[in-house]
Design a protein that fits this description.
179 residues; Dihydrofolate Reductase, subunit A; two-stranded antiparallel sheet; 10 strands; 23% helix
């Protein structure tokens, strides 16, 4: 049995933030509009098609649920330190290894590690990522929630650079084995 593939797919400002200090993502709207006006979704449909589970932090989960679960029948896994946390559509745990075991036990093949710098860092530190697509938006937020929480250095291999409408740059990376 092959191991599950863990993929990142995230947008950040040029100065490295994924959200404003209060967790807001409305700053992304003009860029989403630019992609839509170009007749596409920035490749999201192609990305999400093989995804059978999503892994996120509690704050991201709560934000997502404000819009309603947009991931159809895909399973959700929430990384949280909140004792006794439960939620619709998800399995929750306080550590990444417990979630990794649940994902493997449930037979998921392709998992999106989404939103939240702390969740991104936990996945990095656990060596989960196989690849990441990073969209760099042409804006400087000046402050906010970082794309990746502080932690150990990880080296990546750049596999592709794509210019998108609205000045967006898509960077596709694969992960090198830690030294």
């Amino acid at each position: 049995m092959s191991h599950p593939r863990y993929l990142g797919y995230i947008a950040m400002s040029l100065d490295g933030f994924i959200a404003t200090p209060d967790g807001g993502v409305d700053w992304l709207t003009p860029f989403n509009n630019a992609l839509s006006e170009d007749g596409g979704d920035g490749g999201y449909s192609d990305f999400i098609a093989p995804i059978d589970a999503v892994l996120m932090g509690r704050s991201t989960y709560q934000q997502v649920m404000g819009w309603g679960w947009p991931y159809e029948a895909r399973a959700g896994y929430v990384l949280t330190r909140q004792h006794g946390f439960t939620g619709d559509h998800v399995t929750a745990a306080g550590d990444i290894d417990t979630l990794r075991a649940a994902i493997a036990a449930n037979g998921h093949k392709t998992i999106w590690v989404m939103g939240g710098g702390e969740t991104q860092r936990a996945a990095l530190d656990a060596g989960l990522f196989d690849a990441i697509t990073l969209f760099v938006m042409p804006t400087l937020l000046g402050a906010g929630l970082p794309c990746f929480a502080p932690g150990a250095q990880r080296d990546l291999d750049l596999s592709q650079i794509t210019q998108k409408p609205g000045g967006i740059v898509q960077l596709d990376y694969t992960f090198k084995e830690p030294s």
